């Protein structure tokens, strides 16, 4: 137990003392640290008799603390009401309007979005909870919602985004108190609202296991809008769970944010014409079909309350400086992968639109995706941009296409609503960022250009984003945060079991899925004594086998790729007889004849039971071979073959041994993909 | 650190960040209590755990890595017989428990910046090699004992893998095995996740493994020092290089990723005019030399191999860089190395707690066996190839000659008891050259020699017999007495 984890009880202490201590530690809550928030939540839970005093301290803290620390404090509030519930919901509910709105007016747009997301979840039951009631009663939440809608309407009418965040523009008076958003570098375990936080610390839960089933509270939808709303909120819950599992996945984060925005739009009660609604619906279904489908919420004609891409200001401020060729994003600001994130091309667009003609290096620096484009191509794009008085996203796309930087097929005309939801297809009215992004990803160099086509692609961060460092003593001393970035932030998708990272690309996600599956299968096999108990070391390879060996990562390689590689290297290093691949006896199986679940090995006379092998979709006898029409233990048979058919067959003397068994063909790599590692996913009869 | 009295977490009573200041280097921590440590960005947590202790680390928040291998959040990692450094680029919170000889926060971590920059240099070189047939950087790491050479190689390997590379790692320090017991040279390509606790993880076994297996090519170097038999040592280097370079021709991914060679401190030998280093440089076509620790070594190597020597025998010259040794690099005395050797031998047969293995017992009659003893030390052959004047530069390398008495065929004796015997991929009646150059199939442990009944009991890693193959043993590793029983 950690010294900081809750041990001591405060029973006996006075409310004032408890509140004072609680207030002290609140002041230490600087950033969104899940650990701290969990700790404080536990303290609140253990001191419910002082809930009133604690609630008061928390409210006061949210009101008094600097804007940059308000969000962590609000997350704490969120965590307490969700994880502890009453009586905190009662005490904190009383002043919730003031607590929330006062903070809301003082924080920046990013924090506002987070607060809006939080508010949404307060209208719903705690995810995973049996209690169907919302976190806060509607009469507590609704006034806040109304106030927010009103504020947005006002902002819209004045044709001004509600929370512009242009760092290089003078601060509007309204936002004079605004502080910088919370540091972008927070520990990777920020507290996420919407989730009962502290009791579900990682470790066991895989993303799959943490999906919350969305159970709609409402009666069946009586119209289209409700159906869409329901679907959206279901997706939100799902994405939130995914995002909780992959907090670094910016795409997931973006999707989540987009969904929350969409939900807000839908809930705002504005009239949405049926065609637009259908489009939204298609898009949402598309998103639901593919967990990683790209979605960017799209402004509907006539609904201008959508805000500019939140990442735009940062991008813009980057371009103000003259960008050197191959310049790197400033430390910690934009990891390379993020340059492909939504909003990245807003920057390119802004660069082209700001009047002065940017240089090729600038364009390259702005959009690393275009790094490999020729100077002539980029130059044409610039000229066309300069020629157009109002160079918008559509023009940019068109220009890029004309100059061969975007394949034409990627471009679809602004669409009619399509009845069939197709993930990744552009069915919404033209949207520069998302479309351009998609298109660009198709002209990016493949992440792996290994020259060996059978070799599975590799997680290479885009090479264009890496600094060139000469091999000189002078280059040794200077700290280059961008190198750290390539190892961490650029690969935001981390395996919670082994810490391995993956890119937040589709490929990265696919690999991670395979990788998690590999952990799962491996752990199952380790847990299966029949497989792991008799393990022994293999012989080392011969020189020739090693030279031909195709090294690959079994945790991210499919069975097909693995067997192709095994065939290519034709190596079986566990056998001293080189070039002969074989399965270990333990991995051999015989399909169980229909109706046969038990069998007696005619060598050792022990009983064998059939088991269902999921990879094979069949009932099989493991560690089995056919000998003269009878099913026997493969190990027994191997023993018999080794000892010339006679000796050493006394009952119980069976040894696990590997003998060359070339007849069964190449041995697939351990635990690779389907059907590779025998015995995985076994369900004993 | 459990707090007396009212122990309220997070209420300002416990300030973990201040607690480690009390723990200076060498402070022994015997308490089983769990404590947390806050580490600032670019600092590190150093610990020394002896072979009887268990030390556990859990990453609570932030990012942290151990020699280039990232820790996963909330996983408990255990160490025994280890001198470890947990480094954080971003800052982190660690939970520590168990026992350690010492543990403390290290704030002087400029070395890590240099090491990471080396990684950046290698990445740049790999990118440049992409699409060409030149291959990636081929790095030789040299320096005196206990300056962090292995840690540097491991870190570079870990970072490379994280960047999707598959570098080849070569170890020519026989005292410390890599994916093998001591007495080995190792060549391995590393293309999958390394292991927080075990570094390179585990070589192939018949069962499932926690970390993807790594498949090394092993040669037998039965001498604890290259100076014992420099000729044989050189020949083994030549052979290893041949296999590695062949491998790279077969595997473009690996070729582009390049290779890194870890060496014993004994190569830092001005008296021999760095003869062995020159041999490695030439056999592996080294493109970058990294020196740690010794300024003289750097100066000497730079003068000899550096870019200014454009006319040297090595061609256009090779960058030689001197990188800092880590503040946490600690002397590893003979006792520690001996225990480490024992641990590696034990793990070769019995695995680890995560991947336990079953060794097998084989009894063989003397007549079935072809046993050779590798002769070492004090041989005239050694002396003759090893007396060069320090000022003499670039004397041409002469191919080592195997003398007839390199490997002496013998009848098993009690002297073999507790020794490790290499099974060579060659017939029992092979000549000396073949025996010397053949790769290792596996190692046997001599658990019993019955000179009366003329039979030997071996502990073998594999249930299968090895047939008539040459069995070789020598001075390294030393006998282990308590492996069985
Ligand atoms: Zn993993
Ligand atoms: Zn049987």
TrEMBL record, chain A:
Residues 672-685 have a biased composition (Gly residues). One of its GO terms (cellular component) is mRNA cleavage factor complex. GO terms for molecular function: mRNA binding; phosphatidylinositol binding; RNA polymerase II complex binding; ubiquitin binding. Residues 180-190, 412-422 have a biased composition (Pro residues). Residues 206-216, 565-575 have a biased composition (Low complexity). Residues 191-203, 443-453 have a biased composition (Polar residues). Residues 179-225, 287-316, 405-431, 443-466, 565-584, 646-685 are annotated as: Disordered. It holds the Pfam family Pcf11_C. Residues 42-133 form the VHS domain. GO terms for biological process: mRNA 3'-end processing; termination of RNA polymerase II transcription; vacuolar transport; vesicle-mediated transport. It comes from the Eukaryota. Residues 14-152 form the CID domain. Component of the ESCRT-0 complex composed of HSE1 and VPS27. This is CID domain-containing protein.
TrEMBL record, chain B:
This is Polynucleotide 5'-hydroxyl-kinase GRC3. Residues 1-39, 385-404 are annotated as: Disordered. Keywords: ATP-binding, mRNA processing, Nucleotide-binding, Nucleus. InterPro entries: Clp1, Clp1/Grc3, Clp1_C, Clp1_C_sf, Clp1_N, Clp1_N_sf, CLP1_P, P-loop_NTPase. SUPFAM superfamilies: P-loop containing nucleoside triphosphate hydrolases. It is found in: Nucleus. It holds the Pfam family CLP1_P. It comes from Neohortaea acidophila. The keyword Nucleotide-binding applies. GO terms for molecular function: ATP binding; polynucleotide 5'-hydroxyl-kinase activity. Polynucleotide 5'-kinase involved in rRNA processing. Required for endonucleolytic cleavage during polyadenylation-dependent pre-mRNA 3'-end formation. Its main location: nucleus. One of its GO terms (cellular component) is mRNA cleavage factor complex. GO terms for biological process: mRNA 3'-end processing; tRNA splicing, via endonucleolytic cleavage and ligation. Component of a pre-mRNA cleavage factor complex. Interacts directly with PCF11. Residues 143-350 form the Clp1 P-loop domain. Residues 1-25 have a biased composition (Low complexity). Residues 39-127 form the Clp1 N-terminal domain. Residues 357-474 form the Clp1 C-terminal domain. ATP binds at residues 44, 83, 146-151. Belongs to the Clp1 family. Clp1 subfamily.
């Amino acid at each position: 137990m950690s010294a900081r984890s809750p041990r001591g009880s405060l029973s006996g202490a006075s409310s004032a003392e408890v509140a004072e201590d609680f207030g002290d530690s609140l002041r230490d809550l600087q950033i969104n640290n899940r650990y701290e928030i969990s700790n404080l939540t536990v303290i609140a839970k253990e001191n419910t008799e002082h809930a009133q005093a604690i609630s008061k301290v928390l409210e006061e803290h949210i009101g008094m603390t600097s804007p940059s620390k308000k969000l962590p404090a609000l997350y704490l509030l969120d965590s307490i009401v969700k994880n502890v519930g009453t009586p905190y919901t009662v005490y904190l509910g009383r002043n919730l309007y003031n607590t929330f709105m006062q903070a809301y007016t003082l924080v920046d747009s990013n924090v506002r979005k987070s607060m809006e997301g939080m508010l949404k979840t307060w209208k719903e039951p705690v995810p995973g909870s049996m209690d169907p009631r919302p976190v806060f009663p509607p009469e507590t939440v609704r006034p806040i919602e109304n106030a927010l809608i009103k504020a947005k309407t006002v902002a819209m009418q004045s044709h001004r985004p509600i929370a512009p965040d242009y760092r290089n523009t003078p601060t509007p008076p309204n936002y004079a108190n605004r502080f910088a958003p919370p540091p972008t570098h927070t520990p990777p375990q920020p507290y996420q609202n919407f989730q009962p936080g502290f009791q579900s610390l990682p470790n066991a839960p895989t993303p799959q296991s943490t999906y919350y089933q969305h159970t709609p509270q409402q009666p069946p939808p009586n119209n289209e809008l409700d159906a869409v709303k329901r679907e959206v909120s279901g997706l939100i819950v799902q994405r939130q769970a995914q995002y909780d599992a992959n907090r670094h996945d910016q795409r997931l984060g973006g999707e989540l944010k987009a969904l929350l925005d969409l939900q807000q739009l839908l809930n705002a009660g504005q009239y949405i014409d049926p065609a637009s609604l259908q489009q939204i619906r298609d898009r949402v279904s598309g998103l639901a079909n593919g967990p990683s489908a790209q979605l960017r919420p799209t402004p509907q004609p006539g609904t201008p309350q959508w805000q500019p891409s939140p990442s735009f200001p940062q991008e813009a401020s980057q371009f103000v400086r003259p960008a050197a060729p191959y310049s790197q994003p400033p430390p910690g600001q934009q990891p390379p992968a993020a340059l492909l994130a939504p909003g990245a091309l807003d920057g390119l667009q802004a660069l082209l639109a700001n009047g002065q003609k940017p240089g090729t290096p600038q364009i390259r620096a702005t959009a690393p995706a275009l790094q490999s484009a020729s100077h002539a191509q980029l130059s044409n794009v610039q000229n066309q941009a300069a020629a157009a008085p109002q160079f918008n996203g559509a023009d940019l796309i068109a220009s890029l296409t004309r100059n061969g930087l975007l394949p034409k097929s990627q471009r679809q005309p602004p669409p009619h609503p399509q009845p069939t939801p197709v993930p990744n297809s552009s069915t919404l009215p033209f949207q520069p960022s998302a479309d351009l992004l998609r298109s660009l990803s198709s002209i990016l160099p493949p992440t792996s250009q290994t020259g060996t086509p059978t070799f599975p692609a590799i997680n290479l961060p885009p090479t264009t984003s890496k600094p060139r460092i000469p091999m000189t003593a002078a280059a040794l001393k200077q700290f280059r945060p961008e190198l750290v970035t390539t190892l961490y932030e650029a690969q935001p998708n981390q395996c919670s079991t082994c810490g391995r990272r993956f890119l937040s690309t589709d490929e990265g996600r696919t690999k991670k899925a395979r990788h998690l599956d590999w952990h799962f299968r491996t752990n199952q096999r380790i847990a299966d004594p029949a497989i792991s108990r008799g393990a022994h070391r293999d012989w080392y390879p011969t020189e020739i086998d090693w030279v031909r060996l195709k090294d690959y990562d079994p945790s991210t390689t499919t069975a097909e790729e693995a067997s192709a590689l095994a065939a290519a290297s034709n190596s079986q290093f566990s056998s001293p007889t080189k070039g002969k691949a074989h399965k270990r006896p333990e991995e051999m199986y015989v399909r169980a004849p229909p109706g046969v679940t038990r069998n007696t090995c005619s060598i050792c006379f022990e009983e064998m039971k059939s088991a269902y092998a999921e990879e094979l979709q069949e009932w099989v006898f493991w560690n089995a071979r056919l000998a003269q029409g009878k099913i026997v233990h493969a190990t027994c048979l191997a023993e018999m073959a080794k000892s010339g058919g006679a000796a050493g067959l006394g009952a119980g003397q069976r040894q696990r041994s590997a003998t060359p068994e070339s007849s069964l063909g190449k041995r697939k790599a351990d635990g690779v993909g389907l059907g590779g590692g025998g015995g995985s996913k076994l369900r004993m009869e | 650190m459990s707090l007396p009295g009212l122990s309220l977490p997070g209420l300002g009573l416990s300030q973990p960040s201040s607690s480690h200041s009390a723990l200076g280097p060498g402070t022994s921590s015997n308490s089983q209590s769990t404590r947390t440590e806050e580490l600032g960005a670019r600092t590190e947590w150093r610990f020394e755990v002896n072979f009887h202790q268990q030390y556990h680390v859990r990453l609570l928040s932030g990012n942290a890595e151990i020699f280039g291998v990232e820790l996963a959040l909330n996983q408990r990692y255990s160490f025994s017989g280890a001198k470890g450094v947990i480094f954080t680029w971003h800052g982190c919170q660690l939970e520590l428990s168990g026992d350690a000889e010492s543990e403390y926060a290290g704030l002087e971590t400029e070395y890590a910046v240099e090491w990471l920059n080396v990684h950046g240099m290698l990445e740049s070189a790999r990118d440049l090699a992409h699409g060409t047939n030149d291959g990636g950087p081929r790095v030789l790491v040299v320096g005196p004992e206990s300056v962090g050479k292995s840690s540097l190689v491991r870190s570079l390997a870990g970072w490379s893998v994280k960047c999707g590379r598959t570098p080849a790692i070569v170890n020519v320090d026989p005292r410390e095995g890599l994916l093998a017991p001591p007495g080995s040279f190792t060549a391995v390509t590393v293309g999958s996740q390394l292991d927080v606790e075990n570094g390179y993880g585990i070589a192939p076994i018949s069962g499932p493994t926690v970390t993807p297996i790594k498949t090394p090519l092993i040669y037998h170097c039965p001498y604890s020092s290259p100076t014992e038999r420099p000729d044989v040592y050189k020949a083994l280097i030549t052979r290893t290089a041949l296999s590695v370079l062949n491998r790279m021709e077969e595997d473009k991914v690996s070729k582009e990723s390049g290779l890194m060679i870890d060496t014993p401190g004994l190569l830092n030998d001005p008296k021999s005019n760095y003869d062995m280093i020159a041999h490695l440089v030439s056999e592996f076509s080294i493109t970058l030399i990294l020196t740690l620790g010794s300024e003289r070594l750097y100066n000497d190597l730079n003068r000899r191999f550096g870019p200014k020597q454009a006319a040297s025998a090595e061609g256009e010259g090779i960058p030689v860089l001197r990188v800092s040794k880590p503040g946490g690099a600690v002397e590893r005395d003979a006792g520690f190395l001996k225990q480490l050797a024992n641990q590696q031998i034990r793990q070769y047969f019995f695995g680890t707690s995560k991947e336990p293995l079953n060794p097998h017992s084989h009894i063989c009659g003397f007549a079935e066996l072809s046993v050779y003893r590798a002769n070492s030390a004090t041989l005239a052959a050694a002396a003759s190839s090893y007396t060069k004047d320090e000022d003499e530069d670039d004397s041409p390398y002469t191919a080592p000659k195997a003398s007839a008495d390199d490997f002496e065929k013998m009848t098993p004796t009690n002297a073999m008891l507790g020794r490790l015997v290499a099974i060579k991929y060659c017939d029992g009646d092979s000549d000396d050259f073949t025996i010397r150059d053949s790769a290792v199939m596996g190692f046997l442990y001599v658990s019993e020699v019955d000179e009366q009944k003329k039979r030997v009991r071996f502990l073998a890693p594999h249930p299968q017999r090895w047939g008539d193959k040459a069995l070789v043993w020598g001075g390294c590793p030393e006998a282990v007495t308590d492996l069985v029983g």
